Amino acid sequence: MIRHALQEARFEITPTARQTIRDLSLAAQAKAALLANPMTRLRQIFVTSTDGHLALSGSVRTEEERRVAQGVVASLPGVTGVLNDIVVLPGSLSRFSAG
Length: 99
Description:
Radius of gyration: 18 Å
Structural class: alpha+beta
Strand order of the largest sheet: 1-2-3
Number of domains: 1
Distance between the termini: 56 Å
CATH class: Alpha Beta
Number of helices: 3
């Protein structure tokens, strides 16, 4: 009965839904990669994905951390581009995060 119901057109996955799932998965993989990297794990970096293009935002303490964040996510399978809108705020983050 359930199998029959799932074969109805209203339950078929659409190309848009499939792309949304890919984008959500890619954003989650990118966030996991940033958390696994010692240079970026303590930084407040946000990730969104649209059609395989990742957008990074947030703030870091150095230009090197900004570059590392971009490199970490750019190397993930399925990433077609990276927009790096991360802002470097050298001194202001030291009192809010360890490291």
